[in-house]
């Protein structure tokens, strides 16, 4: 049953990504464009489990040596934190599978609330962090191009 959910969610990420390129409206988008000062952003994870579900070495596949395409399952407990990090040279798509989570981003003047079914596009040097302000765990699927082995 879990494998079916993962396959469905992976398919949903692919469909949402394709739809995102066709249309600028993505659920969970920045409510107020601008920049945010993240000077006091958290730098340590808290209440997060990060499990790599699968990965593909992109060298033999498409000639991008040293890079992997990977999909991870992140579970962020209530009050949990995914600390400040950058997506410079590491694009990603994040799909909210269950729960909700708040993103604080350099590209947005106000926090972004991601709910079930939302997809977040992370690229172009974006820096951000996430906090689960809810009462239930937030489960996210993250697919990114990662500097691998």
UniProtKB/TrEMBL annotation:
Residues 1-27 form the signal peptide. Keywords: Signal. Residues 74-142 form the Cupin type-2 domain. Coiled coil: none annotated. InterPro entries: Cupin_2, RmlC-like_jellyroll, RmlC_Cupin_sf. The keyword tRNA processing does not apply. Pfam families: Cupin_2 (PF07883). This is Cupin domain-containing protein. It comes from Sphingomonas limnosediminicola. The lineage of its organism: Bacteria, Pseudomonadati, Pseudomonadota, Alphaproteobacteria, Sphingomonadales.
């Amino acid at each position: 049953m879990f494998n079916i959910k993962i396959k469905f969610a992976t398919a949903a990420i692919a469909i949402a990504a394709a739809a995102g390129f066709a249309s600028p409206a993505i659920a969970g988008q920045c409510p107020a464009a601008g920049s945010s000062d993240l000077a006091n952003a958290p730098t340590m994870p808290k209440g997060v489990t990060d499990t790599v579900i699968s990965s593909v070495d992109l060298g033999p596949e498409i000639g991008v040596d040293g890079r992997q395409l990977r999909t991870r399952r992140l579970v962020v407990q209530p009050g949990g934190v995914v600390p400040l990090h950058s997506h410079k040279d590491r694009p990603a798509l994040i799909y909210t599978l269950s729960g909700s989570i708040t993103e604080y981003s350099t590209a947005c003047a106000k926090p972004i609330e991601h709910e079930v079914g939302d997809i977040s596009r992370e690229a172009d040097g974006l820096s951000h962090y996430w906090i689960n302000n809810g009462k239930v765990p937030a489960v996210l699927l993250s697919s990114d191009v990662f500097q691998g082995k």
